[in-house]
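Hello Y.,

Per our agreement to keep a running log of every chain we model this quarter, I'm adding this entry. I've kept the format consistent with earlier entries: sequence first, then predicted structure.
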Amino acid sequence: MAPQKRAPNGVTITTSTPTSTAASAGGDTTSSLSSSTLANDPLPGVIVNNANLVEIKSALDDIVKKYLVDQSFTPSLVHPTVHLGLGYSSVILALASVLYSLRVDFEESKPVLAVAVIGYSVLQSALWAWKKWVEKGEVFRGKRRRMVKRIETDHVQIISSTTLKPPPPPAVTFSPHTRPSSPTSAPSSPSTISPATLSPSTSSTQITRQLSNPASASSSSLSSGSGTTSGPTYLVHLNLSTTSNNGKSLIHKSRVVVGRGVGEFVDEEGGVEEGEVVRWLGGLLSEAGLVVAEDEGTKEE
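Predicted structure for the entry above:
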């Protein structure tokens, strides 16, 4: 008997015979293609509690980080450095105060302990404030250099969140500095596809055709999944920019805001479909105008 796996929509798929039945409606066709692709993926290696949004978000964030590192992006160390610096400082302060209190009488150590408690609270409050107002749910920030006729640097930032609401309509914005080979021709002003301009009857294929070549493999990357998705949602804010001349010249800048139902990434047993997440994220980067590293080559930092 051929091995089977369970797709995120709950359908059991035989891996040796992918689904090939054509559906009449556009949403059914997208679901069929997704199921066929899932049939070729390995079985989920990460199992999460599918009732815990925090755990699901953490697993999806890990896949996002791994994919971008595989695309030759070097992650920024600013946030980890701040976390480690404030965390270790608070631990060292607490440990020093404890050691001091063991060497002197308790009454004599009270002033030092009071200062240590206040210092520890300040450091932990600073760490909390950094995460809330500076980091703001940032999953990945990094850059990579590519060799074209000159050295170009791609900067990418991804902020993720989860919500119990259904996926919102996708919103994509391009700057006036869009390169000729990007998904749209260079406009005279920023081009935006916002929820207000997307009618409920607009299909994912129509949205993609406004942005890129209809033959693109990521033709459904900006769709919110099947039309019956009701939440919860994994929401992604992607910011992409390309510069040259050590950041002095802006070549391309875009922003993508899109969400997918977590049920399309996590099956009924809690298995996380890494392949589906990678294909979706790769499509978003392509729609945002990212040049594939293999197309033009990368340069070591």
